[in-house]
Amino acid sequence: MFPLDQWYVAAFAWELTDKPLARTLLNQPVVLFRAGGQAAALADRCCHRHAPLSCGTVETPGIRCGYHGLLFNATGECVEIPGQANIPKTACVRAYPVEERNHIVWIWMGNSLPTRPAPEHPWHDDPAYAFKGDVYHYKAPYQLIHDNLLDLSHLGYVHVKTIGGNAKIHVNAEMAVTKGPDWVKVVRHMKDSQPPPTYLEAWPFEGRIDRWQEIEFKVTYFLIWTGGMDAGSGDLADPARPGFHMRGFHGITPETETTSFYFWTISSNRNPARPDMVETIHKASAFTFDEDRTIIEAQHANMERFGEAPMVGILVDAAPNRARKIVERLTES
Amino acid sequence: MFPLDQWYVAAFAWELTDKPLARTLLNQPVVLFRAGGQAAALADRCCHRHAPLSCGTVETPGIRCGYHGLLFNATGECVEIPGQANIPKTACVRAYPVEERNHIVWIWMGNSLPTRPAPEHPWHDDPAYAFKGDVYHYKAPYQLIHDNLLDLSHLGYVHVKTIGGNAKIHVNAEMAVTKGPDWVKVVRHMKDSQPPPTYLEAWPFEGRIDRWQEIEFKVTYFLIWTGGMDAGSGDLADPARPGFHMRGFHGITPETETTSFYFWTISSNRNPARPDMVETIHKASAFTFDEDRTIIEAQHANMERFGEAPMVGILVDAAPNRARKIVERLTES
Amino acid sequence: MFPLDQWYVAAFAWELTDKPLARTLLNQPVVLFRAGGQAAALADRCCHRHAPLSCGTVETPGIRCGYHGLLFNATGECVEIPGQANIPKTACVRAYPVEERNHIVWIWMGNSLPTRPAPEHPWHDDPAYAFKGDVYHYKAPYQLIHDNLLDLSHLGYVHVKTIGGNAKIHVNAEMAVTKGPDWVKVVRHMKDSQPPPTYLEAWPFEGRIDRWQEIEFKVTYFLIWTGGMDAGSGDLADPARPGFHMRGFHGITPETETTSFYFWTISSNRNPARPDMVETIHKASAFTFDEDRTIIEAQHANMERFGEAPMVGILVDAAPNRARKIVERLTES
Fold it and tell me: Domains plus CATH for chain A?
């Protein structure tokens, strides 16, 4: 149903406080908490009477059930049963490998141990950048969100008010699609185009701009690098090009087959002339991603209403279709 | 499940504005809109990725999907795919025959083409009459609404405050039931009776009245002609009799097997002595039909709670039972 | 699914007014009402068209359906059909045996007649005591409430703010469990302990107290006699011991397999020094039972989320397990 041997985003670091956080991930209810400062994740069910551990309290060395007081450490071992000295070996709950990197808490839901470290996202810790984000809940399956992010031709119809702009520019953009065994990359260039409303608010452009979108699908998350520079002021092929850079992080974690979590941040390079740009970008992004959620949830509800029916393919489906093939292969294996 | 080769009410004319209207009819999600002023109905699903067309925009010559911008005309043909010149033949959605007559938008949900024009309801356009109405959503199957309208003995129990009056008058009314292959007609006369509260508010009666109810079941809608005249002032057999006439239109369109739309209007003959009578009647009717909805939804919920169980028949079931036989025959054929 | 040949609490006496009361009990929708002052219970479905009788009106000699006006007496016999003289023998609904004792309305849901009178609860009518209570709806199966009430070790974790107190005191209390064919009794003594917050508010204790909890499981209800006296001021084995006595009544009636009603009262012996003690105790009890409901509903939701999985038993499960065996035997028989 889902690719299992992957690092998925479980939470942002700032979501883990002194209270437990309950979150169902890939159909598995999980409780997230900090044990001695370290992020930890257990199956969200006491082994005694199945009360959710997330109704309990975070205590040294882990989490205590709020019903009969059993205490578990970060490896899921029960270390105290009130009223009895002897703790049975079977008194334990499943622990999930967790890594916290660059303000992101990653979880490994696979049945085997992690085969590689969790991904990095250095822009969250880069002093040249500032970032802000949020967690959205979707009443839609994760792959519909993949489709959406891999086909930015929808910007001209769904997001006219923020990052979209003229529809013709988007559908006629120069586009290159490349791929590997577990990634797809779409690069789109829109030279000499009119900056969309959010760009104008966030950056002091002089006039028309050379605009780029670099979308990387990495199975459980996307890196979407968008931005623009004054037309002709740099080379779109040079990563160190000047102008306005937005480094989007988009973690997409299935909650169930039909619902998902969408963890997003936008990191943007600072510009002294626009001290409020992080807030400006955050507000516009939140509005934009709400628009996406609205159409994707409507799409999903419609698919449920109509049941199975053929879909007519069009040209912009190329990259989404590649991503679907990768997910299909990783799910089977 | 439903008689298919019928004209059903899809909407009132005033519901179709410059925005698309989404409505599931007979289990089929439909989008209604005006293409160049003409009412049109398509399956509410883009053929590309199944987004609801009702989330899109009404544009010449039809409706544009709000996700990737495909444009469809009123016959369901895709006439534009952004970003590509070639439009595949398969890029189309189902169109439904629609007729707009007397402020009612009728739709033909059958698999074959309409075999007859949509019904007329001339009182909506008769200057001697004024009308007002509404659309109600029912959490109950359409046949429970048929039962209700064909057995007006419930007026004395459910509608005491408006159009009911003394229960004994209703259950003892003179009643004649006639029928044809696709209609049932119930005529009830209650001579020399006390006018119910709504009649008194709407019309300047002198005292006791001769009252009539003529209920025609026409498979997908009812015509319910009720009213009263000063006792002895006319002949109940003469359609041109004087007094207070209410021409009720009641379109009942299944949404699903267990939910329905109820489109109703009351047209009443104007009386200069009561300039507010349309509002008076509308308010009382809305209150009355809310009472019906409450008991019918409770009845349906109860049938679901208890499951299958025998029903004990009583005399007033005669007309409802005939209507059920007609629906059964038309559904099988 | 449920032990059937039992008296279950259907309502408190004060819930039966001049309006019908609808309540699903053991999966069977029931309408409760007073016929000539006497509590009565019928299947909540008119035999004509299955409308809920609870939408009707209480009339001599019973209840009249609010749709077509059929009138039923307290034995479920139809005694009037408007519009027809002849009443078919089949026009009747199921009546349930009901007994009203000590402000409690008991119902017998079994297929055979009651084999014994309904239970007494004399403290509701004892002038030395005052009582107050409420009805709670639970989104959880009844046996999870049994488990909760039979294992008061949870007081130290769930109810710290009211009747709990130090967790160690509870888990280390002296405990004796006895049982019969259809009862389980748990007696716990906590000598020389600190009175919990609610005790201090309700009773003028001098300092530390000898505290008792006597919990009797009686299949469809619990008697929970708790209280305390100034340490050393009496004998915990003597029922006439002095101090603060709370006689809890806890009727637990399944609504469905997964939802329940919880009828509770607390009767406490009056103390002139604390005129408000009934209100104090009621408020604390309501707060406490809300805490129980929260954790039990979370436990149930979690069991549904995770599906079947083994549970690890601990020592405090002894009494709950005995109660489960009794219910199992009574359900099979």
Answer: 7-108 (2.102.10.10), 122-332 (3.90.380.10)
